[in-house]
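Hi, here's the filled form for the chain we discussed.

Project: internal
Contact: R.S.
Residues: 216
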Amino acid sequence: MTKQIKITIASIIFLLVVIIDVYAVIIQDKSLEMIFKPLLMTTLVIVYLLSVKKPNFWLVSALFFSFWGDVFLLDKTNYFVFGLASFLIAHVLYIKMISKFLAKKSIVKILKAAVIFVLLFLGVLYLIKDNLGEMLVPVIIYGIAISGFGTCALLNYQQEKSLANLWLLLGAILFIVSDSLIALNNFYSPIYFLDFLIVVLYIVSQYFICKALILK
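And the returned structure, exactly as it came back:
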């Protein structure tokens, strides 16, 4: 079996897992979701590992913690904090990964790149702050991390406007949007449709990030 055939088979399996998991979210079938949610990052990392000669340690590590984030958030009532912590680590790992690609930047360039992500975070925080309670500090820390992730991805694209860096930037943006919708859905106004949108944006974001690193 050739490498390309293996990649194709793994990609098809990943796509099937995605379809079933999204379907489970739409029909609110928790039993089905508990089976296929943990398979999202598992099958995606297999696609990535088959597609590259030398895997990026930081990406694989970020996908590992994303896997645990998915698992913990299957039970938001009891394990939301653990899920948040897992994704926080994943974002820090993504920042570390992108920082390896960046040349030294001036403070002014960093601040300019950060503005849009910081404003988005502050806007979401303003809407949800009254409902956070003891989650206020963890959410602020998480917000700083995702803002840093977006800033690094934007700086990376500004440094070299390649297709790979565009995929990476889009992945970061979609991840941030997905996280923002989770915050609004949990701490502002729960909307059934957002569950579907959150999972789709999250899956696409992780796929884009992997695609970027495959191209790199």
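Let me know if anything looks off before we file it.
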